Structure formats: C-alpha cells, structure tokens
Backbone:
C-alpha cells in the first residue's frame, strides 16, 4: 500500500516572498492546527542585516509577527520558541527587553536559547511553533 504524500501548506507574510524564494525556504508551514515558523532575523527590506543589535532583535520579532499574522496567529498562540545568539551573555538583557514588549504575561511559551558562531551576518534569530486558532 502506497501512502499519499501530503503537500506543504506554506505561509508567507505580504511583501517578503521574493526573499524566501531566493533562499529556497518557506516562512512557515501549516500542518493541522500547528504552525512551524522558520527562523526570522532582523533584516532590512533588502534582506541585509540591521547593524544595531537592539533594532535587529526588534526587526526579527516584527518579521515573526508578520508571519504569525499571515497564518491568523498572534504571539498568544506561540507554544514553543527557539532563539539563536552569537554572544548570549552580552545579548541577553537586550533580547529580554525586546521580548518583554512582545510576548506578554505568563504563562509563557517554552523557550530554548542556543549560542551559535554563525548566523549569516546576523546576531539573533528566532523560530517558533504556534497553535493555529480554530484548528485550521
């Protein structure tokens, strides 16, 4: 018996699909009532890194918000977060300051922070899994 292969249900925020196509990945994939969001970075409109760290983090969260919105979600629907940091000890306070303006009150989503040595010119990246309201 051959099992049918399911198609990926890709989600893209308005105005950014060309950058995702250039790098050959989807902003997010909807699977059942879950949304798996690719890592979002603090890029300028042309895709280049925002040089100032706090602004880069804020842009990454804004990019994430746009992907969530394109799928009918908000930060309240996020259940799991993974962040990547090029210098976690030096960046932690800044990331938490920006995070606190976006994530909201407890209960908080799961969160895993990972120190890395390379993020393609960026210093921060965030990816999430969210539950899609209404299960679709």
Residues:
């Amino acid at each position: 018996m051959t099992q049918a292969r399911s198609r990926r249900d890709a989600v893209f925020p308005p105005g950014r699909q060309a950058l995702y196509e250039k790098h050959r990945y989807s902003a997010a994939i909807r699977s059942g009532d879950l949304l798996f969001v690719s890592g979002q970075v603090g890029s300028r409109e042309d895709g280049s890194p925002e040089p100032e760290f706090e602004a880069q983090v804020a842009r990454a969260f804004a990019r994430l918000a746009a992907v969530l919105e394109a799928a009918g979600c908000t930060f309240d629907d996020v259940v799991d977060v993974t962040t990547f940091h090029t210098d976690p000890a030096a960046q932690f306070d800044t990331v938490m300051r920006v995070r606190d303006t976006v994530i909201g009150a407890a209960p908080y989503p799961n969160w895993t922070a990972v120190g890395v040595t390379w993020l393609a010119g960026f210093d921060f990246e965030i990816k999430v899994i969210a539950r899609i309201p209404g299960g679709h």
Notes: The mean pLDDT is 90. The chain has one domain: 9-135. DSSP finds three helices and six strands in the chain.
